[in-house]
Amino acid sequence: MPDRLESQHDKTTNAQTPGISQRGIRRQVNRAPLYKGLLPFPILNLRALPLSSNDRVVVLGCGMGGLATSSLLAERAPSASITIVEQKKTFEFSPSFSLLAIGRREPGTVRRALSIPKKRRLQLINDRVRSIVTSSKMVKTKSEELHYDHLVISMGVDYSLGEVPGLEKYAHQFYDFDSAMKLRDALEGLENGRLLIGISRLPIKCPVAPYGLALLLQDHFARAKKKVTIEFFTPEPHPAPAAGPVIGKQVERLLAAKGIAFRPKVKLSKVEKETVVFEGKTELPYDLLIVVPPHKCPSAVVEAGLTDSSGWVPVSPQTLATRFERVYAIGDVTAIETPHAHVPFLPKSGSFAIGQAEVVSNNIAMSITGRGERKIWDGTGSCFLEVNRGESAMLRGEFLSNPPRLEFHPPRRKWQVEKTKLEDYWMTRRF
Ligand SMILES: Cc1cc2nc3c(=O)[nH]c(=O)nc-3n(C[C@H](O)[C@H](O)[C@H](O)COP(=O)(O)OP(=O)(O)OC[C@H]3O[C@@H](n4cnc5c(N)ncnc54)[C@H](O)[C@@H]3O)c2cc1C
Fold this sequence. Notes:
Layout: E1 6-8, E2 25-27, E3 56-60, H1 64-76, E4 81-86, E5 90-92, H2 97-101, H3 107-110, E6 111-113, E7 122-126, E8 129-133, E9 138-141, E10 145-147, E11 150-153, E12 158-159, H4 167-170, H5 177-188, E13 192-199, H6 209-223, E14 227-233, H7 244-257, E15 261-263, E16 268-272, E17 275-278, E18 283-285, E19 288-292, E20 295-296, H8 299-303, E21 313-314, E22 327-329, E23 334-335, H9 350-369, E24 374-376, E25 380-386, E26 392-398, E27 405-412, H10 413-428
Helix pairs in contact: 1-9
Protein backbone atom coordinates (compact mmCIF):
# COMPACT_ATOMS: atom_id res chain seq x y z
CA MET A 1 0.00 0.00 0.00
CA PRO A 2 1.86 3.09 -1.17
CA ASP A 3 0.32 5.52 1.26
CA ARG A 4 0.99 3.57 4.43
CA LEU A 5 3.52 5.35 6.58
CA GLU A 6 3.70 2.98 9.45
CA SER A 7 2.65 -0.55 10.11
CA GLN A 8 3.33 -2.86 13.01
CA HIS A 9 2.38 -6.39 12.12
CA ASP A 10 2.68 -9.43 14.28
CA LYS A 11 0.84 -12.57 15.18
CA THR A 12 -2.73 -12.34 16.40
CA THR A 13 -3.48 -14.17 19.62
CA ASN A 14 -6.30 -16.66 19.60
CA ALA A 15 -7.44 -16.15 23.14
CA GLN A 16 -10.39 -18.29 24.06
CA THR A 17 -13.37 -17.10 26.03
CA PRO A 18 -13.48 -18.87 29.39
CA GLY A 19 -16.27 -21.40 29.51
CA ILE A 20 -16.87 -21.42 25.75
CA SER A 21 -15.17 -23.96 23.54
CA GLN A 22 -13.88 -22.96 20.12
CA ARG A 23 -16.37 -25.40 18.56
CA GLY A 24 -19.45 -23.59 17.43
CA ILE A 25 -17.79 -20.20 17.64
CA ARG A 26 -17.09 -18.25 14.51
CA ARG A 27 -14.57 -15.45 14.81
CA GLN A 28 -16.16 -12.23 13.74
CA VAL A 29 -15.19 -11.60 10.14
CA ASN A 30 -14.30 -8.22 8.77
CA ARG A 31 -17.32 -7.58 6.58
CA ALA A 32 -16.52 -3.98 5.77
CA PRO A 33 -13.14 -3.19 4.26
CA LEU A 34 -12.76 -0.05 6.30
CA TYR A 35 -13.90 1.26 9.66
CA LYS A 36 -15.42 -2.03 10.48
CA GLY A 37 -18.75 -1.96 12.17
CA LEU A 38 -19.63 1.60 11.24
CA LEU A 39 -20.78 0.63 7.75
CA PRO A 40 -24.14 -1.01 6.97
CA PHE A 41 -24.74 -4.32 8.69
CA PRO A 42 -25.67 -7.54 7.00
CA ILE A 43 -29.36 -8.25 7.35
CA LEU A 44 -30.38 -11.76 8.31
CA ASN A 45 -33.87 -12.81 7.34
CA LEU A 46 -34.94 -14.96 10.24
CA ARG A 47 -38.46 -16.31 10.51
CA ALA A 48 -40.51 -15.05 13.47
CA LEU A 49 -40.51 -17.53 16.35
CA PRO A 50 -42.97 -17.87 19.23
CA LEU A 51 -42.42 -15.81 22.36
CA SER A 52 -40.62 -17.50 25.24
CA SER A 53 -39.48 -16.46 28.70
CA ASN A 54 -36.04 -15.94 27.16
CA ASP A 55 -36.88 -13.12 24.85
CA ARG A 56 -37.14 -9.86 26.82
CA VAL A 57 -34.11 -7.76 25.88
CA VAL A 58 -33.52 -4.37 27.45
CA VAL A 59 -30.89 -2.09 25.89
CA LEU A 60 -29.71 0.86 27.99
CA GLY A 61 -28.57 3.84 25.94
CA CYS A 62 -29.25 4.57 22.29
CA GLY A 63 -25.99 6.04 21.07
CA MET A 64 -23.85 4.19 18.57
CA GLY A 65 -23.66 0.92 20.51
CA GLY A 66 -27.30 0.82 21.65
CA LEU A 67 -28.73 1.79 18.26
CA ALA A 68 -26.64 -0.85 16.49
CA THR A 69 -27.44 -3.57 19.05
CA SER A 70 -31.18 -3.02 19.06
CA SER A 71 -31.59 -2.67 15.30
CA LEU A 72 -29.45 -5.73 14.58
CA LEU A 73 -31.27 -7.75 17.20
CA ALA A 74 -34.65 -6.77 15.77
CA GLU A 75 -33.48 -8.13 12.41
CA ARG A 76 -31.97 -11.30 13.80
CA ALA A 77 -34.58 -12.23 16.40
CA PRO A 78 -37.88 -10.81 15.12
CA SER A 79 -39.79 -12.49 17.96
CA ALA A 80 -37.78 -10.77 20.69
CA SER A 81 -39.33 -8.07 22.82
CA ILE A 82 -36.76 -5.28 22.67
CA THR A 83 -36.96 -2.22 24.89
CA ILE A 84 -34.47 0.63 24.58
CA VAL A 85 -34.10 3.26 27.28
CA GLU A 86 -32.53 6.55 26.22
CA GLN A 87 -32.52 9.87 28.07
CA LYS A 88 -32.12 12.03 24.95
CA LYS A 89 -34.66 12.59 22.19
CA THR A 90 -31.96 12.73 19.55
CA PHE A 91 -29.16 10.69 18.03
CA GLU A 92 -25.93 12.61 17.46
CA PHE A 93 -22.93 11.72 15.31
CA SER A 94 -20.19 12.86 17.68
CA PRO A 95 -17.26 12.24 15.25
CA SER A 96 -18.50 15.37 13.44
CA PHE A 97 -18.63 17.65 16.52
CA SER A 98 -15.26 19.18 15.58
CA LEU A 99 -16.66 20.11 12.14
CA LEU A 100 -19.75 21.52 13.86
CA ALA A 101 -17.54 23.66 16.11
CA ILE A 102 -15.62 25.18 13.21
CA GLY A 103 -18.79 25.87 11.21
CA ARG A 104 -18.34 23.18 8.54
CA ARG A 105 -21.45 21.31 9.64
CA GLU A 106 -24.88 22.61 10.59
CA PRO A 107 -26.72 21.20 13.62
CA GLY A 108 -29.22 19.29 11.44
CA THR A 109 -26.45 17.39 9.67
CA VAL A 110 -24.99 15.83 12.83
CA ARG A 111 -28.12 15.39 14.97
CA ARG A 112 -31.48 13.82 14.25
CA ALA A 113 -34.64 12.79 16.11
CA LEU A 114 -34.77 9.26 17.53
CA SER A 115 -37.86 7.44 16.38
CA ILE A 116 -38.94 3.89 15.68
CA PRO A 117 -41.05 2.94 12.67
CA LYS A 118 -44.41 1.50 13.76
CA LYS A 119 -43.82 -1.83 12.03
CA ARG A 120 -40.78 -2.70 14.17
CA ARG A 121 -41.29 -4.66 17.41
CA LEU A 122 -39.16 -2.26 19.39
CA GLN A 123 -40.08 0.03 22.21
CA LEU A 124 -38.15 3.22 22.86
CA ILE A 125 -38.57 4.65 26.35
CA ASN A 126 -37.43 8.23 26.53
CA ASP A 127 -36.35 8.31 30.15
CA ARG A 128 -33.32 8.25 32.40
CA VAL A 129 -32.04 4.95 33.82
CA ARG A 130 -32.07 5.37 37.58
CA SER A 131 -30.94 1.94 38.74
CA ILE A 132 -30.02 -1.52 37.54
CA VAL A 133 -30.91 -4.37 39.91
CA THR A 134 -29.13 -7.46 38.62
CA SER A 135 -30.38 -9.67 41.50
CA SER A 136 -33.98 -9.27 40.31
CA LYS A 137 -33.13 -8.70 36.60
CA MET A 138 -34.77 -5.31 36.60
CA VAL A 139 -34.05 -1.75 35.48
CA LYS A 140 -35.76 1.25 37.04
CA THR A 141 -36.31 4.51 35.22
CA LYS A 142 -38.09 7.57 36.59
CA SER A 143 -41.46 6.16 35.57
CA GLU A 144 -41.05 2.44 34.81
CA GLU A 145 -39.76 -0.88 36.10
CA LEU A 146 -38.47 -3.06 33.29
CA HIS A 147 -37.78 -6.78 33.64
CA TYR A 148 -35.23 -8.38 31.35
CA ASP A 149 -33.97 -11.78 30.30
CA HIS A 150 -30.95 -10.19 28.56
CA LEU A 151 -29.57 -6.76 29.39
CA VAL A 152 -27.19 -4.74 27.19
CA ILE A 153 -25.59 -1.70 28.80
CA SER A 154 -24.38 0.85 26.26
CA MET A 155 -24.64 4.05 28.30
CA GLY A 156 -21.36 5.64 27.25
CA VAL A 157 -19.67 8.10 29.59
CA ASP A 158 -20.63 11.06 31.76
CA TYR A 159 -18.41 14.12 32.10
CA SER A 160 -16.94 15.08 35.43
CA LEU A 161 -16.21 18.78 35.05
CA GLY A 162 -15.95 19.36 38.82
CA GLU A 163 -12.77 17.25 38.97
CA VAL A 164 -10.65 20.18 37.76
CA PRO A 165 -11.29 23.51 39.52
CA GLY A 166 -12.20 26.29 37.09
CA LEU A 167 -12.78 23.93 34.13
CA GLU A 168 -16.52 24.49 33.89
CA LYS A 169 -16.21 28.25 34.31
CA TYR A 170 -13.37 29.06 31.91
CA ALA A 171 -12.86 26.21 29.43
CA HIS A 172 -14.72 25.30 26.26
CA GLN A 173 -15.07 21.73 25.04
CA PHE A 174 -16.51 19.92 22.02
CA TYR A 175 -17.39 16.47 23.40
CA ASP A 176 -21.14 17.09 23.44
CA PHE A 177 -23.45 18.82 21.00
CA ASP A 178 -24.35 21.90 23.08
CA SER A 179 -20.72 22.53 24.08
CA ALA A 180 -19.59 22.24 20.45
CA MET A 181 -22.19 24.88 19.51
CA LYS A 182 -20.97 27.23 22.27
CA LEU A 183 -17.39 26.70 21.13
CA ARG A 184 -18.47 27.61 17.60
CA ASP A 185 -19.63 31.05 18.80
CA ALA A 186 -16.39 31.56 20.74
CA LEU A 187 -14.23 30.60 17.75
CA GLU A 188 -16.11 33.02 15.51
CA GLY A 189 -15.26 35.81 17.95
CA LEU A 190 -11.54 34.97 18.14
CA GLU A 191 -9.60 37.30 15.86
CA ASN A 192 -6.05 36.58 17.06
CA GLY A 193 -4.15 35.40 20.13
CA ARG A 194 -3.28 32.18 21.85
CA LEU A 195 -5.48 29.10 21.67
CA LEU A 196 -4.75 26.28 24.09
CA ILE A 197 -6.27 22.87 23.47
CA GLY A 198 -5.74 19.88 25.68
CA ILE A 199 -6.80 16.73 27.49
CA SER A 200 -7.48 16.94 31.23
CA ARG A 201 -7.63 13.28 32.31
CA LEU A 202 -7.50 9.80 30.78
CA PRO A 203 -9.23 7.78 29.45
CA ILE A 204 -11.17 9.78 26.87
CA LYS A 205 -13.36 8.87 23.92
CA CYS A 206 -11.65 8.79 20.54
CA PRO A 207 -8.19 9.82 21.76
CA VAL A 208 -7.22 11.31 18.37
CA ALA A 209 -10.26 13.64 18.20
CA PRO A 210 -8.61 16.56 20.10
CA TYR A 211 -5.53 16.32 17.86
CA GLY A 212 -7.82 16.43 14.84
CA LEU A 213 -9.53 19.54 16.20
CA ALA A 214 -6.15 21.27 16.73
CA LEU A 215 -5.16 20.54 13.11
CA LEU A 216 -8.55 21.62 11.75
CA LEU A 217 -8.39 24.86 13.75
CA GLN A 218 -4.94 25.69 12.44
CA ASP A 219 -6.24 25.22 8.88
CA HIS A 220 -9.39 27.19 9.70
CA PHE A 221 -7.52 30.23 11.10
CA ALA A 222 -4.92 30.17 8.32
CA ARG A 223 -7.67 30.32 5.69
CA ALA A 224 -9.40 33.14 7.56
CA LYS A 225 -6.01 34.94 7.78
CA LYS A 226 -6.35 35.17 11.56
CA LYS A 227 -3.16 35.20 13.60
CA VAL A 228 -3.90 32.51 16.16
CA THR A 229 -1.13 30.36 17.67
CA ILE A 230 -2.13 26.91 18.88
CA GLU A 231 -0.56 24.85 21.65
CA PHE A 232 -1.62 21.33 22.69
CA PHE A 233 -1.23 19.78 26.16
CA THR A 234 -1.95 16.25 27.41
CA PRO A 235 -1.10 13.81 30.22
CA GLU A 236 -0.32 11.21 27.50
CA PRO A 237 3.32 10.41 26.69
CA HIS A 238 2.53 10.86 22.98
CA PRO A 239 -0.63 11.14 20.84
CA ALA A 240 -2.85 8.06 20.52
CA PRO A 241 -0.97 5.94 23.09
CA ALA A 242 -3.01 2.82 22.29
CA ALA A 243 -1.47 2.88 18.83
CA GLY A 244 2.08 2.92 20.21
CA PRO A 245 4.97 5.41 20.01
CA VAL A 246 5.71 4.95 16.30
CA ILE A 247 2.23 6.00 15.19
CA GLY A 248 2.20 8.63 17.96
CA LYS A 249 5.24 10.18 16.27
CA GLN A 250 3.34 10.42 12.97
CA VAL A 251 0.66 12.47 14.68
CA GLU A 252 3.30 14.64 16.40
CA ARG A 253 4.84 15.31 12.97
CA LEU A 254 1.47 16.46 11.64
CA LEU A 255 1.22 18.92 14.56
CA ALA A 256 4.79 20.14 14.11
CA ALA A 257 4.29 20.66 10.36
CA LYS A 258 1.47 23.06 11.20
CA GLY A 259 3.40 24.92 13.88
CA ILE A 260 1.30 23.51 16.74
CA ALA A 261 3.43 23.28 19.90
CA PHE A 262 3.03 19.95 21.74
CA ARG A 263 3.36 19.56 25.49
CA PRO A 264 2.99 15.88 26.61
CA LYS A 265 2.97 14.36 30.14
CA VAL A 266 1.33 17.31 31.89
CA LYS A 267 -1.62 16.98 34.26
CA LEU A 268 -4.01 19.90 34.51
CA SER A 269 -4.54 20.89 38.15
CA LYS A 270 -6.70 24.02 37.77
CA VAL A 271 -7.96 26.60 35.32
CA GLU A 272 -7.95 30.31 36.08
CA LYS A 273 -9.02 33.27 34.02
CA GLU A 274 -6.54 33.39 31.11
CA THR A 275 -4.11 30.85 32.71
CA VAL A 276 -4.00 27.08 33.11
CA VAL A 277 -1.98 25.55 35.94
CA PHE A 278 -0.44 22.06 35.74
CA GLU A 279 0.77 19.83 38.56
CA GLY A 280 4.28 21.06 39.43
CA LYS A 281 3.00 24.65 39.13
CA THR A 282 3.87 25.19 35.44
CA GLU A 283 1.48 27.73 33.96
CA LEU A 284 0.39 28.56 30.43
CA PRO A 285 -1.51 31.66 29.35
CA TYR A 286 -4.45 31.48 26.93
CA ASP A 287 -6.96 33.68 25.12
CA LEU A 288 -9.26 30.76 24.32
CA LEU A 289 -9.12 27.38 26.06
CA ILE A 290 -10.55 24.06 24.84
CA VAL A 291 -10.22 21.08 27.22
CA VAL A 292 -11.58 17.55 26.87
CA PRO A 293 -13.28 17.08 30.26
CA PRO A 294 -12.62 14.12 32.61
CA HIS A 295 -14.82 11.11 31.78
CA LYS A 296 -16.59 8.90 34.31
CA CYS A 297 -18.85 5.88 34.21
CA PRO A 298 -22.59 6.74 34.50
CA SER A 299 -23.64 6.60 38.16
CA ALA A 300 -26.44 4.03 37.67
CA VAL A 301 -23.83 1.59 36.35
CA VAL A 302 -21.43 2.23 39.23
CA GLU A 303 -24.18 1.93 41.85
CA ALA A 304 -25.26 -1.42 40.37
CA GLY A 305 -21.85 -2.84 41.30
CA LEU A 306 -20.88 -3.45 37.70
CA THR A 307 -17.57 -1.54 37.79
CA ASP A 308 -14.18 -2.48 39.23
CA SER A 309 -11.12 -0.50 40.36
CA SER A 310 -10.68 0.84 36.80
CA GLY A 311 -13.92 2.79 37.34
CA TRP A 312 -15.47 1.08 34.28
CA VAL A 313 -17.24 -2.22 33.56
CA PRO A 314 -14.90 -5.20 33.14
CA VAL A 315 -16.15 -7.58 30.43
CA SER A 316 -14.99 -10.62 28.56
CA PRO A 317 -13.16 -9.17 25.52
CA GLN A 318 -14.60 -11.88 23.31
CA THR A 319 -18.26 -11.94 24.40
CA LEU A 320 -18.69 -8.63 26.26
CA ALA A 321 -20.33 -10.55 29.12
CA THR A 322 -20.14 -8.92 32.55
CA ARG A 323 -19.82 -10.97 35.72
CA PHE A 324 -23.64 -10.99 35.98
CA GLU A 325 -25.60 -13.61 34.11
CA ARG A 326 -26.97 -12.41 30.74
CA VAL A 327 -25.79 -8.87 31.39
CA TYR A 328 -23.53 -7.47 28.66
CA ALA A 329 -21.75 -4.13 28.43
CA ILE A 330 -20.43 -2.61 25.22
CA GLY A 331 -18.72 0.56 24.05
CA ASP A 332 -17.38 3.39 26.14
CA VAL A 333 -18.76 2.09 29.44
CA THR A 334 -16.38 -0.90 29.39
CA ALA A 335 -12.78 -1.49 30.47
CA ILE A 336 -11.12 -4.14 28.31
CA GLU A 337 -7.57 -5.02 29.24
CA THR A 338 -5.07 -5.08 26.40
CA PRO A 339 -2.60 -7.95 26.15
CA HIS A 340 0.25 -5.56 25.21
CA ALA A 341 2.14 -2.76 26.92
CA HIS A 342 0.96 0.30 24.96
CA VAL A 343 -1.96 1.03 27.29
CA PRO A 344 -3.61 -1.03 30.04
CA PHE A 345 -7.12 -0.78 28.51
CA LEU A 346 -8.52 -0.44 25.01
CA PRO A 347 -9.34 3.13 24.00
CA LYS A 348 -12.96 4.27 23.84
CA SER A 349 -14.08 4.25 20.23
CA GLY A 350 -17.28 4.10 18.22
CA SER A 351 -15.82 1.46 15.93
CA PHE A 352 -15.30 -0.82 18.94
CA ALA A 353 -18.86 -0.16 20.18
CA ILE A 354 -20.30 -1.17 16.80
CA GLY A 355 -18.17 -4.30 16.44
CA GLN A 356 -19.21 -5.32 19.94
CA ALA A 357 -22.89 -4.62 19.15
CA GLU A 358 -22.57 -6.98 16.20
CA VAL A 359 -21.29 -9.79 18.45
CA VAL A 360 -23.68 -9.25 21.36
CA SER A 361 -26.77 -8.93 19.16
CA ASN A 362 -25.76 -12.08 17.26
CA ASN A 363 -25.24 -14.11 20.43
CA ILE A 364 -28.44 -12.95 22.13
CA ALA A 365 -30.39 -13.64 18.92
CA MET A 366 -28.87 -17.11 18.85
CA SER A 367 -29.90 -17.73 22.43
CA ILE A 368 -33.49 -16.63 21.63
CA THR A 369 -33.95 -18.33 18.26
CA GLY A 370 -31.70 -21.33 18.80
CA ARG A 371 -30.20 -20.68 15.37
CA GLY A 372 -26.92 -19.46 14.01
CA GLU A 373 -23.40 -19.59 15.34
CA ARG A 374 -21.80 -17.78 18.24
CA LYS A 375 -19.41 -14.97 17.39
CA ILE A 376 -16.53 -13.52 19.32
CA TRP A 377 -15.14 -10.00 19.10
CA ASP A 378 -11.64 -9.59 17.68
CA GLY A 379 -10.69 -6.08 18.86
CA THR A 380 -10.65 -4.52 15.40
CA GLY A 381 -11.22 -0.79 15.17
CA SER A 382 -10.35 2.35 13.27
CA CYS A 383 -10.74 6.08 13.31
CA PHE A 384 -10.19 9.09 11.10
CA LEU A 385 -8.00 12.05 11.96
CA GLU A 386 -9.21 15.09 10.08
CA VAL A 387 -6.32 17.39 9.29
CA ASN A 388 -7.67 20.10 6.98
CA ARG A 389 -10.56 21.05 4.74
CA GLY A 390 -9.82 18.35 2.16
CA GLU A 391 -7.95 15.52 3.87
CA SER A 392 -8.04 13.05 6.74
CA ALA A 393 -5.56 10.52 8.01
CA MET A 394 -6.75 7.07 9.11
CA LEU A 395 -5.66 4.72 11.85
CA ARG A 396 -6.87 1.15 12.08
CA GLY A 397 -5.80 -2.10 13.59
CA GLU A 398 -6.35 -5.19 15.67
CA PHE A 399 -5.94 -3.81 19.14
CA LEU A 400 -6.24 -7.12 20.99
CA SER A 401 -3.37 -8.80 19.17
CA ASN A 402 -0.05 -8.99 20.97
CA PRO A 403 1.68 -6.90 19.80
CA PRO A 404 -1.20 -5.06 18.15
CA ARG A 405 -1.38 -5.00 14.35
CA LEU A 406 -1.73 -1.32 13.54
CA GLU A 407 -1.66 0.88 10.47
CA PHE A 408 -1.43 4.63 10.11
CA HIS A 409 -2.47 6.04 6.73
CA PRO A 410 -1.34 9.61 6.15
CA PRO A 411 -3.73 12.36 5.08
CA ARG A 412 -5.57 11.74 1.81
CA ARG A 413 -8.81 12.96 0.35
CA LYS A 414 -10.17 9.40 0.17
CA TRP A 415 -10.25 9.06 3.97
CA GLN A 416 -12.26 12.23 4.24
CA VAL A 417 -14.70 10.87 1.67
CA GLU A 418 -15.03 7.67 3.75
CA LYS A 419 -15.70 9.69 6.90
CA THR A 420 -18.41 11.71 5.13
CA LYS A 421 -20.03 8.47 3.95
CA LEU A 422 -20.14 7.30 7.56
CA GLU A 423 -21.76 10.50 8.67
CA ASP A 424 -24.42 10.13 5.96
CA TYR A 425 -24.97 6.53 6.98
CA TRP A 426 -25.47 7.31 10.67
CA MET A 427 -27.63 10.32 10.02
CA THR A 428 -30.03 8.27 7.91
CA ARG A 429 -29.84 4.86 9.60
CA ARG A 430 -33.13 3.97 11.28
CA PHE A 431 -34.07 1.07 13.55
C1 LIG B 1 -15.70 14.59 19.48
C2 LIG B 1 -15.75 13.12 19.31
C3 LIG B 1 -15.21 12.53 18.17
C4 LIG B 1 -15.24 11.15 18.02
N1 LIG B 1 -14.71 10.60 16.88
C5 LIG B 1 -14.76 9.25 16.71
C6 LIG B 1 -14.25 8.65 15.52
O1 LIG B 1 -13.78 9.30 14.61
N2 LIG B 1 -14.31 7.30 15.43
C7 LIG B 1 -14.83 6.52 16.42
O2 LIG B 1 -14.86 5.29 16.28
N3 LIG B 1 -15.32 7.06 17.56
C8 LIG B 1 -15.31 8.41 17.71
N4 LIG B 1 -15.80 8.96 18.86
C9 LIG B 1 -16.23 8.09 19.95
C10 LIG B 1 -17.63 7.55 19.76
O3 LIG B 1 -18.55 8.60 19.60
C11 LIG B 1 -18.00 6.73 20.98
O4 LIG B 1 -16.96 5.82 21.25
C12 LIG B 1 -19.30 5.97 20.75
O5 LIG B 1 -20.35 6.89 20.63
C13 LIG B 1 -19.53 5.00 21.90
O6 LIG B 1 -20.80 4.41 21.78
P1 LIG B 1 -21.61 4.02 23.11
O7 LIG B 1 -22.86 3.42 22.62
O8 LIG B 1 -20.74 3.31 24.03
O9 LIG B 1 -21.90 5.44 23.80
P2 LIG B 1 -22.73 6.67 23.25
O10 LIG B 1 -22.76 6.69 21.77
O11 LIG B 1 -22.20 7.86 23.96
O12 LIG B 1 -24.20 6.38 23.75
C14 LIG B 1 -24.54 6.35 25.11
C15 LIG B 1 -26.01 6.71 25.23
O13 LIG B 1 -26.47 6.37 26.55
C16 LIG B 1 -27.33 7.39 26.98
N5 LIG B 1 -27.37 7.40 28.45
C17 LIG B 1 -26.35 7.60 29.30
N6 LIG B 1 -26.76 7.55 30.57
C18 LIG B 1 -28.09 7.30 30.51
C19 LIG B 1 -29.10 7.13 31.51
N7 LIG B 1 -28.84 7.19 32.82
N8 LIG B 1 -30.37 6.89 31.10
C20 LIG B 1 -30.68 6.82 29.76
N9 LIG B 1 -29.77 6.99 28.79
C21 LIG B 1 -28.50 7.20 29.15
C22 LIG B 1 -26.71 8.66 26.41
O14 LIG B 1 -27.65 9.72 26.35
C23 LIG B 1 -26.23 8.20 25.05
O15 LIG B 1 -27.18 8.43 24.04
C24 LIG B 1 -15.81 10.35 19.03
C25 LIG B 1 -16.37 10.93 20.17
C26 LIG B 1 -16.35 12.31 20.31
C27 LIG B 1 -16.98 12.93 21.53
